[in-house]
Design brief:
The complex is a heterotetramer, with two copies of chain A (250 residues) and two copies of chain B (309 residues). Chain A is built from eleven helices and no strands. With 250 residues, chain A is mostly helical. The longest helix of chain A has 29 residues. Helix content of chain B is 68%, strand content 2%. Chain B has twelve helices and two strands, in the order αααααααααββααα. Chain B has a two-stranded antiparallel ribbon with strand order 1-2. The model of chain B has no long low-confidence stretch (mean pLDDT 96). The chains are: A mainly alpha (250), B mainly alpha (309).
Chain lengths: 250, 309, 250, 309
């Protein structure tokens, strides 16, 4: 598979899997306003994913459209980061996962608005406006929960600590990243780490939360297709209908 | 009283009643019950449809369904706001839902078993809801009437989307047609029950009609719904599960079979297939999320204190 | 579909779905000895299910074996009672579900050892020995938890109350049951209710638990294929591999 | 001391030490650690395999896997019993597992991602375990040696089943072969790590060898495992993911590449892909189930009291 396709799948799968996780908690949010906000984020991510996957399929040129890529790949062919496949947990966990992702996602999309490939630029330009709102919202929640009650502070700190080992993967560039960057369709992620650190440290400080120490052995492999045990269950639900009734229109 | 007389005159003259105006206590209470029940239905209604977002058959349908369920949360919000103008707090309304004191539409106590259920809910359940709500755009209470205008617009959009998704099934494989017919068989009668008990057994109706917060009777609306739905079903090429359904030339309406009101009463009383499950979902969202609401309140207080320093 | 096949599917699907629920809690039992016992029950039910489904497929004569029936029917074609598809809940809930089912199952199997069809008799004879142990075990646990601590008593009573509406379905005979009975492959269930009531009442009494009042509007429909929302998720997991890789040997 | 001398003489003469006999405190402690670590591994080992019971590809494989995982619970039980003969309670052993004081085999901190992983675990992980355990059937402590006889017999059965399921994949579709090769690629190195650090870095070994509770060194067992596995992999038609693997005529053994001991240390230290997940499972089974154990104990007490009345 070409590095271009591979790098687009990474973008598309992050959106698809995180929107799936958010879809699992529809109707179960603690505040009605958050139902709207959370569904909104899920919709944005799903919409972006459709664009990235469609472009991946188009460039691949083997007749796979966004649906074929979403519904007919098995777990080892998915390219999302491990962070976004983590199960929902409590609201603090959802907020931490979202904030870590959004902060990274926004930086990546801003970078993608400046690559040479205009198709990638166009999607990134649209998406980065949406994600600018996502990161404001999730960052606000980190602060509210961190600087809320003792219980919320504790939960928020636990969530930050538990998800911390999944952050480094977002900034590790492999051969695909390097090649996609050289091909004018991708960005290098390592250089974005400093800006991410600044935003996250400032936000955690405002939230009276402690920044965890660097992970000694960060978790990685998602974007190369080495996932955790949870993703298989996501796909079982996500793909059930297409696999049970293949080749039909809906 | 002169106030009461003046109130009724304004209602009779189709002048909207606004929040700060004088209104009979019974009018206020009836409206609170009616609006909040509608709001609760939007909230609980997210569950049976939300059940299929993760399993929608393609990405476009997934996005449409997610957006639809999001709209329902939005409708819940407008309607709670409309109820709040009558002097009841959202907290109190939520408490009534969580404790089971307040009702929500019984239709949401049926399970969504296949993808076709999602389309059929859009077509029939939203269709029945719109039939109920369109007259309420002209109801006497201003905030409610205005909320209904917005809700009806969105619901009509949902209904068209639901019907469109059924057209795809109707033109699809034998399995898809069977799935569609099966969903219709399960949802048809509960949809007819959405209009409430027969007029003969319906309470409060006369007063509500005088107040213009109920503009047509249950049976009138049900008949309109049947009349509207039959040709749509024919166009889809599916059979409504009612052997007694036929055009009555004399009445100029479709006759339809006897509704199983015992089932309706059982479901209203809490014994439908999903009543417990829905209430458990509502309760766990509420109680498991209490710490989040407390945290948000605590943070808001801290922020306000810092600003005044 | 013939009533014979239909009635065998009901037996087979009960075992398949309940063993699936038990499989979900493997490795998560509160006592190691119960890991063994619970897996043992799951294995027995799975084994019985394979026999019933194989016989159903054989009689149907359309080339479907037990695997085809287990892995390639969608939710509306499953014939298990609603009771067995209920999600696991806490240990008390698992115990109550198991006991209500076992007590019924044992009576049904004893009845089936006396039908005219020898294939059904053979399976029932083997299965009823296994299930005699199941019902002793689950009944013992009802007593231990009911007559244990205040907390366990409360949990056990809650479980009994929550599952009570699913009991009546087990004893409702429809046309299929009547015809299968007439054809010498099935039993009527209504006549078994008295024996079930006696066992359950005695057990609940020994457990210091209250027998709930009769359900006014009992839940039903499972054995005609009208399930709850949970079963679809069971099938998404159960059938994933077969549907993702159709037509392959494993 | 004379007791110590006599103890060592019996060990040297291959006479089994039994629970009531005198034994050095260090021997007892080492055995408790070794046996309980083995027991804990059986318990935690249920999780990665249990992950595929509900998703097994056919009913026969499902039954085989369920029975296998059940056997592991059984092994856990024998081994806890063997440890208990050394004067430690099951409660204490469980506490050590739950708090993370006691270790379990690091291999179970890797995820099972596809069905092929289940076969590969049977083949390689059980294979490595058997390689470790066969000599222990002759170890100096009677209850442990006897437990190992039973465990080895069942594990060999599991290993054959695992290998048989891989043969089906190896003869299957291109997708299945790819799934098999991929699983091998992920499990090969962690399997080699199961034998523990290289002899040069291994602690306690000399004393354990003298006590006959460790009869071969880590590297000896690892080499045997490699020598046994290479022809099995060839028979399956798959490639072990080690470019340095080749037959060394001179040594009469296969040479193999350098093991990434940094990864091993990271996983042992708690940073493997699934360490947290496994410990969360173990903890929630233990804490969420506390009320069940309390109830069983309370009921047993009540029953005993009634019987003495």
């Amino acid at each position: 598979m070409s590095v271009v396709v591979e790098s687009l799948l990474r973008l598309g799968d992050n959106g698809l899997i995180l929107s799936h996780r958010l879809s699992e908690v529809v109707g179960k949010q603690p505040i009605l306003e958050e139902e709207l906000a959370s569904a909104n984020v899920a919709l944005d991510l799903l919409g972006q994913s459709r664009l990235w996957l469609a472009l991946a399929g188009e460039i691949e040129g083997e007749g796979r459209d966004a649906d074929a890529l979403a519904f007919f790949r098995d777990v080892r062919a998915f390219r999302n980061a491990l962070l976004v496949e983590q199960p929902n947990g409590d609201f603090a966990f959802q907020v931490a996962r979202q904030f870590f992702f959004d902060a990274w996602h926004h930086l990546v999309l801003r970078g993608l608005t400046r690559v040479t490939d205009h198709r990638v630029r166009d999607i990134a330009t649209k998406a980065s406006k949406e994600v600018a709102y996502h990161v404001r919202r999730s960052g606000d929640w980190v602060v509210r929960l961190g600087d809320g009650t003792d219980e919320s502070h504790q939960r928020m700190q636990t969530a930050v600590n538990e998800l911390w080992p999944y952050v480094d993967e977002l900034f590790m560039d492999d051969e695909t990243d390097v090649a996609a960057h050289a091909a004018g369709v991708g960005v290098l992620h390592a250089p974005l780490k400093a800006a991410w650190d600044t935003l996250v440290q400032d936000t955690l400080a405002a939230a009276t939360l402690t920044v965890p120490p660097a992970s000694k052995w960060p978790q990685r492999g998602g974007k190369q297709g080495r996932h955790g045990e949870h993703l298989g269950y996501v796909l079982a639900d996500l793909q059930y209908l297409q696999r049970a009734y293949p080749g039909q229109s809906w | 009283s002169p106030e009461a007389r003046r109130f009724q005159e304004r209602v009779d003259a189709d002048i909207r009643i606004e929040p700060r105006e004088w209104m009979p206590e019974a009018y206020r209470k009836t409206l609170i019950r009616q609006i909040s029940q509608h709001a609760h239905s939007e909230i609980v209604g997210m569950l049976p449809e939300g059940n299929w977002i993760t399993r929608a058959p393609n990405l476009e349908r997934k996005a449409i369904l997610l957006a639809k369920v999001q709209d329902e949360a939005g409708h819940g919000l407008y309607l709670y706001s409309a109820a709040e103008t009558l002097g009841v707090s959202r907290e109190e309304l939520t408490r009534q839902l969580v404790t089971g004191e307040a009702k929500y539409s019984s239709i949401f106590n049926y399970p969504t078993l296949t993808w076709a259920d999602i389309g059929v809910i859009g077509w029939l359940v939203d269709g029945a809801a719109i039939m109920n709500q369109i007259p309420l755009q002209r109801c006497s209470y201003g905030p409610y009437a205005r909320a209904m205008i917005r809700v009806c617009k969105e619901e009509s959009f949902h209904q068209r989307q639901g019907y469109a998704s059924l057209m795809v099934l109707a033109k699809g494989s034998a399995e898809q047609k069977e799935m569609l017919q099966d969903a219709l068989n399960r949802w048809w009668w509960p949809s007819l029950m959405m209009f409430g008990p027969p007029d003969a057994e319906s309470v409060h109706s006369a007063q509500s009609a005088r107040w213009k917060i109920k503009l047509f009777s249950n049976d009138e609306l049900r008949q309109r719904f049947v009349d509207q739905t039959v040709p749509q079903a024919e166009y889809l090429g599916i059979t409504l599960p009612d052997p007694d359904l036929r055009w009555n030339e004399e009445r100029g309406h479709y006759d339809y079979g006897k509704i199983d009101w015992a089932e309706f009463q059982a479901v209203v009383a809490g014994n439908g297939p999903c009543n417990r499950q829905r209430m458990q979902s509502v309760n766990s969202a509420f109680y498991d999320g209490a710490w989040v609401r407390e945290a948000a309140a605590a943070h808001a207080t801290k922020t306000a204190e810092r600003e005044t320093q």
